[in-house]
Design brief:
The structure is a single chain. By secondary structure, the protein is mostly helical. It has one domain. Helix content is about 95%, strand content about 0%. α1 crosses α2. The chain is rod-shaped, with a radius of gyration of 26 Å.
Length: about 70
């Protein structure tokens, strides 16, 4: 009876460890994606792209208005 309890707890430990690693991998993927978007948004190219899109959008609205 004692050995059976030990194997159950070790199986549970392995399963919880696998779940933890899976969650950690998902967080790592998310943080990598977030880092890429943050670099695009905060980097020089990102600021230029945002301002260029804003300028294009405003020009398009002006053309429609006139």
């Amino acid at each position: 009876m004692e050995a059976n309890t030990h194997t159950d707890s070790s199986k549970l430990l392995v399963l919880s460890r696998e779940a933890h690693l899976k969650k950690r991998d998902q967080k790592t993927v998310f943080s990598k994606k977030y880092d890429i978007t943050r670099l695009l948004r905060d980097g020089l190219f990102g600021k230029m792209a945002v301002s260029w899109l804003f300028f294009t959008f405003c020009s398009f609205l002006y053309i429609l208005a006139v």
